[in-house]
Design brief:
With 284 residues, the chain is an all-alpha fold. The protein contains eight helices and two strands, in the order H-E-E-H-H-H-H-H-H-H.
Amino acid sequence: MRGYVDPLLGVMDLSSIGSMLAAAKTGGEGDGMHMPTLDELYPEPFWRIGEWFEFNRIDLIRVIATVALVVLVYLGARRTRLVPGRGQSTFELAMGFVHKQICEAAMPPAMARRYLPFIATIFFGVLALNITGVLPFLNVSSNGLVAVPMILAVCAWIAFVAQGIRSHGLGHFLTDNLFPKGAPKVMYILLTPIEFLSTFVLRPVTLTVRLMANMIAGHFLLTAFFVMTSYLLIEGAGLMKGLSLLTAAASFAFVIFEIFIAGLQAFIFAILTSVYIGLASEEH
């Protein structure tokens, strides 16, 4: 059953993601009810230039989400007044949430103001790309692919390292993070590689994988419920048709839950970025 509309659910136990991906490779084979496959995340390009550039449905959704976000921010900030209107009030409320609940929760006030544009870009960017998973006619989150989460994670890592070097200097920053104070020097043989992996490798990797895995897992889970509902309603008989009402109710409940997860994942990505930047400026 190809061509169905499939909103994405944004959360699942990460331990099950491997088995879901393995099952998805063969989910579209055979007759009867066809479950979602990885092909849904890798559509055929409809514009290609040689071997180095292609543009597909996922790329189009990225562009739509980005343009929509830029337009909304422009409309909210283009005419600021002392007595704000409805649009300006909404924009100020959203920016105030990022400033107070994310930036200032992890950084000193002066640093929070300096990094507000960067953290706000990450928060609203992740949110916009996540929320497309439940929007009609879009129905997919491009954060289910590694590219955008990885780029955002690398930007967060660069900001963290740059802040550490700015606050302490390169030598002191590296020494502070790779050679924990108070530990016996002989332990550095073991601790330094662990600190390097934890601080400079695992942080961007976990930011990337957490966001991507949640979007992938949700794609297969929620799509499976919608496909099951369609199959039971069209092909089922008797009580099986009645069962489709339960799966339909579960599907729409998961759509509401996905909206919550889209915001939660954006918050987690932004708050962790803020925490890393804040830690880079502190003495250990």
